[in-house]
Amino acid sequence: MKLIKSELNNEILTVGLQGHIDSNNAADVEAEITEARGSGDIKNVVIDMQDLQYISSAGLRILLRLKKIYPELRVVNVNSEVYEILNITGFSEMMNVQKAYRELTVEGCEVIGQGANGKVYRIDPDTIVKVYYKPDALPDIERERELARTALILGIPTAIPYDIVKVGEGYGSIFELLNAKSFAKLIQDDPGKTDEVITMSVDLLKKIHGTLVNPDKMPDMKKVAQNWAAFLKDYLPEENFNKLVSLVDGVPEDLHMLHGDYHLKNIMLQDNEVLLIDMDTLCTGHPVFEFASIFNAYQGYSELDHDNMLQFLGIPYETGSHIWEKTLELYFDGRSKEEIEAIADKAKIIGYTRNMRRLIRRDALENEKGRAEVENCKKHILELTEKLDTLTF
Q1: Quick check: 232 and 361 in contact, CB under 8 A?
Q2: Can you name the CATH fold of 4-99?
Q3: Local structure of 277: helix, strand or coil
Q4: d(Cα 131, Cα 26) in Å, to the nearest integer?
Q5: For the purposes of burial, counting CB atoms within 10 Å of the CB of 6, is it exposed (0-12), middle (13-18) or buried (19 or more)?
Q6: Rounded distance, CA 344 to CA 308, Å?
Q7: Model confidence pLDDT, tens digit, residues 151-182
């Protein structure tokens, strides 16, 4: 009886290991792999562990010898028990090891959050899953997990994903959030609590912005904003474009934390504790960049089509406008109305810059509605470049 399954396809040999591999059968397993390798020209080997329940040190030594012959060796479909062995022994760092992920469907599940890189669904009262748009999102998932860990260590209340699942052709991260409700849902259920929710939101925002981060732990938001501005070179008059670039370049370096996508659906309330989710946009920088994102969420993206607000956050546009204005008022408590309006303008020019770039990249210039939205952003940018001399506050 064969101890392995093997298949050669496009010079890639896939070897399927089965059952248990230990000192009693390791030599025979290796002999069968050697025989399979001799069946044709082979550029690489993939070890498929879907049907493997256990591997001993004798089996691990087979992997090491194969790794020396095929430096790009891949190990796939590893169950949790075998992955633990590979992880503890350091094999998951020495070679490309991919876990087998349980499959999950989100059909019929409530969408409780949505960001730039994925949607968040409630699976049951205790559990949510963030499903990523990119099919090959495993590096993004690991990156977000590390960002969330960093934020948690620094005192920002958040949920750390404890599992990765396969959702259709893509991947998702599983979080435990016991009966948590998004701030959007809280306002939908009881509009009378809107100002109370805004106050909690601003309290958390101040905590985030008051947190210093080591420069190697999170990306710099200023660099991202500089790319947004540079993109508009062919779409703005030269004088206004140069002013926009100068304004963004003039924002001082800042190592305080920003969320990067701060809105009602990314803030949860669980047992009276406020939690931040969707952490893949965490970065550092001046708060003007955060307020640009907040402006877009509550006004900018829905300025010409108020239905966008209902689709995105589930609240009327007028409520979004109130949240934007109240957020500024509470965050900048003690500032005059004129000072707050000036701060709003500084955030808006970044917000319109980001939105104009986003629209153009999504082929908005190819249709009437899109062209109107691009022109609206451009109009505001032209007005604000004439008006502003700095983006700091």
Answers
A1: no
A2: Transcription Regulator spoIIAA (3.30.750)
A3: coil
A4: 40
A5: middle
A6: 21
A7: 999 999 998 888 889 999 899 999 887 778 89
Q: What does pTM read for this prediction? A: 0.79
Question: Strands 127-132, 118-124: parallel, antiparallel or unpaired by DSSP?
Answer: antiparallel
Q: Are 258 and 283 in contact (CB under 8 A)?
A: yes
Length reported for the chain: 393
Segment 310-350, tens digit of pLDDT:
999 999 999 999 999 999 999 999 999 999 999 999 999 99
Three-class SS string for 24-75? CCHHHHHHHHHHHHCCCCCCEEEEEEEEEEEECHHHHHHHHHHHHHCCCCEE
Angle between helices 337-361 and 368-387 (to 10 degrees): 140
**332, burial (CB in 10 Å: exposed 0-12, middle 13-18, buried 19+):** middle
Amino acid at 308: N
Could you give the residue range(s) of every CATH 3.30.750.24 domain in the chain?
A: 4-99
Amino acid at 167: V
Residues 6+ apart with CB under 8 A from 253: 220, 222
Place of tokens 């070890």: 47
How far is it between the farthest Cα atoms of the chain?
83
273-276, strands of its sheet edge to edge: 181-182, 267-270, 273-276
Report the distance separating Cα 285 and Cα 288, nearest Å.
Answer: 8
392 within 8 A of 345, measured Cβ to Cβ: no
Q: Where do the H-state alpha helices sit in the chain?
A: 26-37, 57-69, 80-88, 91-94, 138-153, 183-189, 194-209, 221-231, 238-249, 287-298, 307-313, 317-331, 337-361, 368-387
In the 8-state DSSP scheme, what is residue 14?
A: E
Residue type, 182: S
Tokens of 387: 């008006």
The yes or no reply on domain 110-176 and CATH 3.30.200.20 is yes
181-387: CATH, from 3.90.1200.10, 3.30.1360.200, 2.60.40.1840, 2.30.22.10: 3.90.1200.10
Q: Which two tokens stand for residue 240?
A: 């206004």
